Amino acid sequence: RDKKGKPIRFFGTQIDLTERKKAEERLLEHQSKLKAMASEMLMTEERERQRLAVGLHDEVCQKLVLTKLALESSLQLVSDSKVLASLRIACGAIGETIEQADSLTFKLSNPVLRQLGFVIALEKYLTEEIRQKHGIEYELEGDEQLGTLQDEIKNCLFRVTRELLTNVVKHAQACKVKVSARESQSQIYVRVQDDGVGFKESQAGSKVSQTARFGLFSIREQLEYLGGHLEIDSVPGRGTKATVVVPLTKKAIV
Questions:
Q1: Which residues form the PAC domain (predicted)?
Q2: pLDDT at 208
Q3: Which of 33, 127, 136, 160 could, after both became Cys, cross-link 219 (CB 3.0–4.6 A)?
């Protein structure tokens, strides 16, 4: 400053952030490309699952059914008790194989999900897998609007909901599970709430099994590709509430 106190020179440091900004832009672009690639991989996987399921049903299952019918017809032509016993065992084994193949077909690519939509496929899964196989009662509230979702959204929602229900079966010791699926304010909400043992969220790492933790990690990864996320609220002795949130864009509805 001069004698009157006016500044006559300044001292400072200038940092050129151009390269840093460019690096950040390149990183964002790279992340965007990775998400696009991951999304395309999921779609490719789903198409391959569908191709395998159709082949398994139309070729393998149909041939097994015809073979079983032929063996059953042969039973009437055989009088030897030992041969009859062997044929009946063979028919039973083929019948079990047909059931297993049908189940595998359903797991590879759910035809109900593909043809009738998310809510109806979810109700079928809850009835056959949760209630009938595991004895857990369920309550379902579904929005019919979700029946017109784009395949990518629909498949992802079904996969992550199925994973959450699998966790309920394996870890919650629940008697009942409530599932709701709705659309609100341009977002899709799918909630799975059980009346099981629950856990302290601060102790999730130690209380939840490694398999369950991996399942939750997988769910979060899949949702991230769609710009969604998973919220978990659990209290010991009062069950667990898991909420899937996915943004609903115009192209998400067909």
A1: 1-29
A2: 52
A3: 160
Neighbours of 134 (CB within 10 A): 13
For the chain, the maximum distance between any two Cα atoms, rounded to a whole number of angstroms, is: 126
Q: Say which DSSP state 116 is in.
A: H
Model pTM score: 0.66
pLDDT tens by residue, 159-182: 899 999 999 999 899 999 999 999
CA atoms within 13 A on the CB side of 212: 17
Collect all residues with Cβ–Cβ distance below 8 Å to 67 and sequence separation of at least 6.
94
Per DSSP, the chain holds a count of helices (H) and strands (E) of 8, 5
Residues 6+ apart with CB under 8 A from 115: none
Query: Token pair for residue 165?
Result: 């229900």
Residue with tokens 């009942």: 176
Query: Can you tell me the distance from the alpha carbon of 175 to that of 139, in angstroms, rounded to the nearest whole number?
Result: 12
Give which of 111, 103, 98 is closest to 50, Cα–Cα: 111
Sheet holding 229-234, edge to edge: 137-142, 176-184, 187-194, 240-247, 229-234
- What is the C-alpha to C-alpha distance for residues 244 and 180, in angstroms, rounded to an integer? 10
Note the pLDDT of residue 51: 86
Relative to beta strand 229-234, strand 240-247 is antiparallel
Name every residue whose Cβ is closer than 8 Å to that of residue 216 and which is 6 or more positions away in sequence. Answer: 167, 208, 230, 232
Distance CA 125, CA 45 (A): 21
